[in-house]
Amino acid sequence: MALLPHQIELLAPARDADIGIEAVNHGADAVYIGGPSFGARAAADNPVSEIERLVKHAHRFHARVFVTLNTILRDDELEPARRLVHELWNAGVDALIIQDMGLLELDLPPIELHASTQCDIRTPEKARFLQDVGLSQLVLARELTLEQIAAVRAATDSARSTLEFFIHGALCVAYSGQCYISEAHTGRSANRGDCSQACRLPYQVLDAQGRFVAHDQHVLSMKDNNQSANLEALIDAGIRSFKIEGRYKDMGYVKNITAHYRGLLDGLLEARTDLARASDGRCRFSFTPDPNQNFNRAFTDYFVRGRQADIGAFDTPKNAGQPMGWVARATAEFFEFEADDPTLELHNGDGLCYFDAQQELMGAQINRAERAGPNGLWRAWPKDPMSSLRDLRRGTRIHRNRDMAWVRALEKKSAERRIGVWMRLGETPHAEGLSLLLTDEAGHEARAELPLPYAAPRDDAPAAEALRAQLARLGETIFEPIDIRLDLPRPWFVPPSQLNRLRRDAIAALEATRAAAWTRPLRAAPVEPPVAYPEDTLSYLANVYNHKARDFYARHGVKLIAAAFESHEEEGEVSLMITKHCVRYSLSLCPKQAKGVTGVQGTVRAEPLTLQHGNERLTLRFDCKPCEMHVVGRLKPRVRAAARELPLQFYRTRPSR
């Protein structure tokens, strides 16, 4: 069912169907997953049959399943994509997440369409346009502030479009859909799900005179997103779908992070009677969720509360984990460390790490660990020789980035999700027998009857208790009793096998009722006549890679439509990345930071900087009016030459050569 304006949706990622099922079990109201092709995570594809298995499980809780079809498509891919969409519709999928507007020109089933983060929705005008062409859920740019989100909500209709926002996980430094470094340098397009992640590399940063500003720093690598403290503010700004990043992430990550935000959102919903959950059932966990236990590059809330200086993971893009203690002694075979917390437990297989003298993160997997004394002193024998652990000496700070006890706990069953039901046992009206009526917490009802001659029990009180106890045994079903009422003149004796059958029949009937009540949202009708796109000229930044996308924009009033960067028509230097992150600002070299500083004001200018990694050089240019940074470069000749060898069909504005 479509999300209502007062409903709050927790949207979790799934690399595969099994992870998606556990996301639902751990509290997700919706799950997004890649299909067999055309998803923006090329290594996270799934067959339609597996997606259908996830759909069947999710719909039991009235949770939704979205499939990502959010790459830009060549002309020769449009027909396979159209056929795939029909397969997904027939499999019960609730919505598609798309980037390519060419899909709107195809003969698709009436499936609901959502605008991917790759659509780069930063302005109220663009959000309104996408709503008006029939997209029902809009994933806003991660870079928006609360005020900007509220402006988007004010410009759109909450009855026609839901605003979605990433609340956790890895951050792409570029505006989504606006990064072409991977395509330019390797021929692997980020807009086609195959990013080479140049943003995670170390760079030398040089100023206009060639002087070093930073040495071997990961200046384009962001910390990880964590909006735990901003959920209510985001709700008040207009967000209704809260999205967790991570279609490459493992089962433990999805279980833990979904459970973490489920708890936070449930706390808000209990306090806010104006809001409601988007699916049915409540979760119980066998662990205490903790985002710090999963891979992270430290956390930031990015731009939600305005520009912050400390948003980068400049030292390393790896997971340093949580600080644990200090090395007390290092020998040729083992090392000892004093834990900050005397109650800390170390386990065989734990992953420890530290920064060496060059601030490079070094890993030390523990083969064996044992207590070496009181007050948290531990002795650890690493898997690798001590001689390979560079600069591990007394006084080194030790972190743990993998806790095997935590890992093993999440490898087991770690959650139960149950829908509450009221159960009423009464007599059948026309003949001897019993009737069991079930009403779930969403108001769905189902009844089952059992023909049975009435037999008096020896003692009414224990008989009544036995009936209640037997009815309460909902076992491995998705239901749990809220209240059990006996509407009987007296608690008749019922053989347990007969009562079990009655209960099973009633549960099956309730599941059937819930399934029949579930209706998929349909694709929203576009506004007629077609609304005008906010601009009448589109550059390569619009990612138009097929003729249907070109026709779409032309139909909406665009006069000049350039081909996507992947068409290789941009021959000179262009912006290969546009980002709200500013290297000058993060290195305290921004002219605005110098305002009012005696002796500095007027001497710091937003001159270009150069990034260098090996033989690769990129130019950083700064557009201070919108406070954005452009990473400038050009397409490698070898990439252009390799592409010419392939017989591909895509949108061009110039004759192919």
TrEMBL record:
Family matches, as InterPro entries: Pept_U32_collagenase, Peptidase_U32, RNA/ubiquinone_mod_enzymes
Name listed for the protein in its UniProt record: Putative protease
Highest taxon listed in the record's lineage: Bacteria
Domain Peptidase U32 collagenase: 399-514
Annotated coiled-coil segments of the chain: none
GO terms, molecular function: peptidase activity
One of the GO BP terms on file: proteolysis
PANTHER family xrefs: 23S RRNA 5-HYDROXYCYTIDINE C2501 SYNTHASE, PEPTIDASE U32 FAMILY
Pfam families named in the record: DUF3656, Peptidase_U32
Keywords for this protein: Hydrolase, Protease
